[in-house]
Backbone:
């Protein structure tokens, strides 16, 4: 099967502060991820995983380097080469350690809003939101507020929101940290299923080594650089 | 999907309490305007209702409503002779305070020129106009009197035969209408002992006059009641009022009476202006300034409320930005909530005003024009109040969604 490139970063560098307080969070980070590929990003705290994720998620501009998504150069150093909010809502889906659902919207509305701000009609977005919630097994909680959902249910709703606009990239930052191992496994399986079925690239920052078999590729980060985690490749999905 | 409505729906109790607070504040702003309008209405009510085009008053005074005026009763005959005037009649007005059943009874006494004026022009809510030349009165309901109730004023009892509503002076005292003679009897009522002492004093003064010694009958007359002494004359009235005859030239009438050196003439409009620019003016400015300050306070309070509401939602706004919400979605949410807060606060203020203002001791008049004007001001304040929240919301970085 021909695998097109979903994300490509070249010489990605992020520097916080300057002078004595300068911290290099990313150092020439280069990575290529294809559509349908599920990638794990491992590394100790402070290795730059979250910085890398937010940089390719277009919410934390790099100091230098380029980011290309779906064949389109979107960041050239700190300068955006496209309308970032529009690009984010159309091409990138986010899932975080906390579900970060909007508390005054129901589960369905949390999914629906992602589509409505992209110009979907109310009826079409509602129908698709319900389909996604069904796909993720939380249709029966569609009209509940986030405060009435369990952590696992909230993460599923967050995943549904991330998938709403059929993104080419799904970014997840420790999505299973707040879940028990069973639920964590379910969520990881979900990403794999979605990436493969929908043809999206998924980049997951995780500390959970028990679910590494879910991933197609595993990368390790250290001191702001990215490299294949050769010692862990045997865990990866064949 | 309207995010502003969704947020309100989810935090309904809190939003309702906020609206109640804003509504109460706006009700006070509304009241300031209403009290001012009430002052004007109370001040000009009698002038408007009396159907008098011309007021002939004591020279260089501002008429019986704005200040004290005294003119001789026979002035009515001179006014009747002026071409272009009709229905001339005496008018008496003064404020009294008496006790009635152990309660303070403060009222503006208006004397009507019986039988020319029986008070048919007075808008009654119950009863009838005056039908006898003595011992009947029409009272405003603010005086707390009932139809048929008998009130002792001076040495006589007066029966309430008619009731009015909101017929009060600019000072807020209820008005009571009597025949002119009764009004003067109430005004000049003196205790028997005071009358006796006055007669004795008069006699003592007469005894010192040569004329009294030459004419003993003069000395005898000094001891009579004052109404029987031609030199003393009848009591003065406050003014003489009249209507301009159809087709007559008002300016010509005014020019004629202005030529008399003992009185001044005031037109209906002039009387209104004198009241408004005199007695009511200072109160108007006071209320106006207070209203302005309250409006500014309301704007500040609303700004702080909208800003606080925005601060509470910063994380959610960051999340919306993260998933790609354009600025108009974020701004729309804040501005819509601010406008809803203002408009619902305004409606709450109006409803509170309907319920509470009638309980106030003075009239509070809410005119449609004033309400529309206040509504527009509140709308403007709402939009301005959202400015600070909008400014804060625009500064939120999508990154902040990841900090919890």
Residues:
């Amino acid at each position: 099967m021909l695998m097109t490139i979903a994300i490509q970063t070249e010489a990605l560098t992020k520097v916080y502060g300057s002078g004595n307080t300068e911290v290099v969070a990313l150092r020439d980070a280069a990575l290529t991820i294809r559509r349908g590929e599920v990638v794990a990003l491992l590394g100790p705290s402070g290795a730059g995983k979250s910085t890398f994720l937010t940089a390719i998620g277009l919410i934390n501009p790099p100091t230098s380097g380029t980011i290309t998504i779906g064949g389109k150069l979107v960041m050239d150093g700190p300068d955006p080469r496209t309308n970032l909010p529009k690009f984010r809502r159309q091409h990138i889906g986010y899932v975080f350690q906390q579900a970060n659902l909007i508390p005054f919207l129901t589960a369905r509305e949390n999914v629906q809003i992602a589509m409505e701000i992209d110009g979907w009609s109310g009826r079409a977005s509602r129908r698709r939101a319900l389909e996604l919630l069904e796909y993720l097994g939380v249709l029966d909680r569609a009209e509940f507020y986030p405060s009435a959902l369990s952590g696992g249910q909230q993460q599923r709703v967050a995943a549904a929101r991330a998938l709403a606009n059929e993104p080419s990239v799904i970014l997840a930052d420790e999505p299973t940290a707040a879940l028990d191992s069973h639920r964590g496994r379910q969520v990881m399986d979900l990403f794999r299923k979605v990436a493969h079925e929908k043809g999206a690239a998924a980049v997951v920052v995780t500390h959970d080594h028990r679910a590494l078999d879910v991933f197609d590729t595993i990368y390790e980060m250290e001191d702001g650089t990215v490299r294949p985690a050769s010692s862990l490749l045997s865990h990866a999905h064949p | 999907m309207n995010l502003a409505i969704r947020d309100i729906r989810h935090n309904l109790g809190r939003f309702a309490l906020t609206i109640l607070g804003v509504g109460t504040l706006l009700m006070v702003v509304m009241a300031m305007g209403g009290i001012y309008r009430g002052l004007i209405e109370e001040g000009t009510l009698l002038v408007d209702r009396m159907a008098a085009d011309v007021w002939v008053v004591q020279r260089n005074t501002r008429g019986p409503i704005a200040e004290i005026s005294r003119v001789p009763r026979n002035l009515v005959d001179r006014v009747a002779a002026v071409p272009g005037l009709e229905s001339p009649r005496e008018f008496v007005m003064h404020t009294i305070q008496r006790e009635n059943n152990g309660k303070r009874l403060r009222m503006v006494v208006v004397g009507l020129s019986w039988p020319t004026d029986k008070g048919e022009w007075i808008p009654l809510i119950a009863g009838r106009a005056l039908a006898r030349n003595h011992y009947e009165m029409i009272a405003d309901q603010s005086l707390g009197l009932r139809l048929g109730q008998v009130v002792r004023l001076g040495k006589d009892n007066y029966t309430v035969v008619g009731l009015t509503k909101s017929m009060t002076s600019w000072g807020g005292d209820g008005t009571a209408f009597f025949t002119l003679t009764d009004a003067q009897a109430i005004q000049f009522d003196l205790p028997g002992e005071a009358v006796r002492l006055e007669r004795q004093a008069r006699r003592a003064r007469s005894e010192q006059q040569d004329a009294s010694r030459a004419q003993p009958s003069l000395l005898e007359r000094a001891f009579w009641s004052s109404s029987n002494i031609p030199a003393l004359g009848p009591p003065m009235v406050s003014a003489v009022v009249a209507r301009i005859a159809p087709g007559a030239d008002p300016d010509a009438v005014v020019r004629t009476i202005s030529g008399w050196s003992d009185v001044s003439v005031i037109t209906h409009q002039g009387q209104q202006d004198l009241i408004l620019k005199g007695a009511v003016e200072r109160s108007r400015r006071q209320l106006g300034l207070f209203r302005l300050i309250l409006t500014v306070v309301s704007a500040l309070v609303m700004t702080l409320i909208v800003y606080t509401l925005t601060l509470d939602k910063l994380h959610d706004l960051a999340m919306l930005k993260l998933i790609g919400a354009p600025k108009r979605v974020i701004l729309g949410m804040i501005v819509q909530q601010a406008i809803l807060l203002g408009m619902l606060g305004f409606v709450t203020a109006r409803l509170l005003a309907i319920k509470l203002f009638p309980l106030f001791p003075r009239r509070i008049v809410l005119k449609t024009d004033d309400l529309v004007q206040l509504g527009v001001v509140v709308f403007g304040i709402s939009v301005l109040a959202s400015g600070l929240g909008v400014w804060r919301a625009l500064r939120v970085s999508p990154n902040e969604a990841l900090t919890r």
